[in-house]
Amino acid sequence: MTREQSRTLVIAGPTASGKSGLAFRVAEELNGVVINADSMQVYSDLRVLTARPSADDEARVPHKLYGYLDGADGCTAAAWAARAAEEITNAHSNKQVPIVVGGTGLYLKALIEGLSDIPEVPLEIRQTARRIFLEQGNDALYQSLLEKDPEGAVRLKPKDHQRVLRAWEVVEATGTPLHVWQAKSQPKPLINGPFHTVLFQPPREDLYAACNGRFEVMLEGGALAEVEALLARGLNPALPVMKALGVPELAAFVRGETSHEDAVTKAQQHTRNYAKRQVTWFRGQFNASETLNTQYSESLFNKIFPKIR
């Protein structure tokens, strides 16, 4: 198998930077398979609000790991990476180019670098952690973590409830702090590569304008109806799908707690804040083969494509 057949292309960057558009066009040109690496696009409940590829795009080129989970399910970076590795292997076997695209940095890190070998946490312990979080709040969970794993707790931001949850679960389940597991277990990549990584880092003003504009397009495309349907399911509010960008704000509007205008304004602000965090993460923790300091547009394809083909 040649390098061209066996390589994996990764297209990364913040939300609304144009990653999916480039991935689709490259897949058309290179007989590619687009593999999702966005932690919210894995859920079937939110096609519009997570900006999943359209049904037409999915029909034109193969798309994998989009909408394959129900909103009631959770998804870890390790679980996603295992599925992504399978899809990459399948693409290589079929002489197709796997194109991994997304902005969830931990997912991409898990795939490219691997994760530490940590025992799986039993379901009942995960449920206990979430019950503490829901009934007593994140502060109580963090205080409990301080008692169980003080060294690990001080490494975390108290308000980062996802990492607090994970650290609490691991020490509760194994009796060994998460940071100890991570230190004694070298990450094991699931795919040996080679990876060719492309990173979008658009100018901030362009990125923020794209975030604002895309949310307006989502509203026109039925985002509010998606949130109404999600709320009707009565899902646990701690589930990841309930905290997807735009869901809490539009849910507050549906419940009559805020105006439509305020909900949209807050959702756009939170989206911009998230994009800013992504830019910072990728700048410090993602070693890209190619960095594109621009917003993707179709007019730029012929300029970008020779660099990554």
SSE string, helices as H and strands as E: HEHEHEHEHHHHHHEHHHHEH
Instruction: Give the terminus-to-terminus CA distance.
Output: 17 Å
What is the structural class? alpha/beta
Radius of gyration: 20 Å
By DSSP, the count of extended strands is 6
- Give start-end ranges of low-pLDDT stretches: 1-5
Shape: globular
What is the CATH architecture term of the largest domain?
3-Layer(aba) Sandwich
Strand content: 5-15%
Protein architecture, described:
- The protein is of the alpha/beta class and 309 residues long.
- It has two domains: 3-115 and 188-308, P-loop containing nucleotide triphosphate hydrolases (Rossmann fold, 3-Layer(aba) Sandwich); 123-184, Histone, subunit A (Orthogonal Bundle), CATH 1.10.20.
- It contains 15 helices and six strands.
- It starts with a helix and ends with a helix.
Write the layout of secondary structure elements.
Blueprint (H helix, E strand, L loop, with lengths): L2 H4 L1 E5 L6 H12 L1 E5 L18 H6 L2 E2 L12 H17 L3 E6 L2 H8 L10 H14 L1 H11 L1 H5 L6 H14 L3 H7 L10 E6 L3 H17 L2 H10 L14 H8 L5 H26 L4 E3 L8 H8 L1
Parallel strand pairs: 1-4, 1-5, 2-3, 2-4, 5-6
Helix pairs in contact: 4-5, 6-7, 6-9, 7-9, 11-14, 12-13, 13-14
